[in-house]
Amino acid sequence: MATRHRGRMLGQAAFWAAIGLLCVYYLYQTIAYRFVTPGRLGPTLLDKQLWFWVHLVFALPVLIGAPLQFWTRLRTSRPRLHRAIGKAYVIGATVAALTALYLGATIEYEGSRLPLVMLAAIWLFFTLAAWRRARARDFAGHRLFMIRSYNLALVFIWLRLVQEVPRDILFFYISDEGIRDTTIEWFIWVIPLLAMELYLAWWPQARGRRSA
Fold first, then answer.
1. Predicted TM-score (pTM) of this structure
2. Whole-angstrom Cα distance, residue 66 to residue 157?
3. In this model, does residue 18 exceed pLDDT 70?
4. Separation of alpha carbons 212 and 144, rounded Å
5. What 3 state SS string does the chain have?
6. Contact between residue 92 and residue 65 where contact means Cβ atoms under 8 Å apart
7. Does a structural domain hold residue 211?
8. Residue 51 above 90 pLDDT?
9. Rounded alpha-carbon distances, angstroms, from residue 178 to 37, 51, 145, 149
10. Residues 97, 17, 160, 144: is their CA dihedral positive or negative?
11. Would you say residue 97 lies in a domain?
């Protein structure tokens, strides 16, 4: 029993270490692409530049704080700290999602607008639903919506990983580059969302069990 518990703890530590490394990689790639490369931040302070900076600043508590929210020992031994981190997550994710709504709706690529706006709207809904379930002391529902919210917060990490795969391999059946770009915008969040719902709800219900 102790060996199984130790193995489970090591597996969880490895999982979160991988997520942490991916977050660092994502931040490096994003900052280099959007904030360092000239001409990609927006023409003026109020026309995109401020929105990108606000989105980045408020997304940081999401990427840093969410893994701590899933740390069982912290949740049980330091509930006040757990709640403080949760509040920072909700505020950060809410503002980041709202700025993402604007940035997605005004992006220059027309095929990217609808998927990005829908992604931001669903992320905002999951985040606020997690907050409401916590306020109602429905901690099981709170946990499920937090998992869903963080899953969508990691979408742009999935995007960076997808971009590492040559398009001629992943989307060999699409020849038009514009259609490939639009397909990727849907692919990076619809597939993780469906996979998460399969894990949290569909598969447990199909087997006659309660949701995860």
1. 0.88
2. 15
3. yes
4. 8
5. CHHHHHHHHHHHHHHHHHHHHHHHHHHHHHHHHHHHCCCCCCCECCCEHHHHHHHHHHHHHHHHHHHHHCCHHHHHHCHHHHHHHHHHHHHHHHHHHHHHHHHHHCCCCHHHHHHHHHHHHHHHHHHHHHHHHHHCCCHHHHHHHHHHHHHHHCHHHHHHHHHCCCHHHHCCCCCCHHHHHHHHHHHHHHHHHHHHHHHHHHHHHHCCCCCC
6. yes
7. no
8. yes
9. 23, 25, 33, 29
10. negative
11. yes
Q: What are the angstrom distances between the C-alpha of 136 and each of 48, 108, 131, 179?
A: 37, 41, 9, 44
Domain with 105 in it: 2-206
Q: Which of 34-43, 116-125, 179-188 has the lowest mean pLDDT?
A: 34-43
For residue 212, tell me if it sits in a domain: no
Q: Do 26 and 160 meet the contact criterion of CB atoms below 8 Å apart?
A: yes
Amino acid at 66: A
Q: What is the mean pLDDT of the chain?
A: 87
CATH at residue 186:
1.20.120
Q: Are 100 and 120 in contact (CB under 8 A)?
A: yes
What pLDDT does 11 receive? 75
pLDDT at 39 over 60: yes
Structural domain tally of the chain?
1
pLDDT at 115: 95
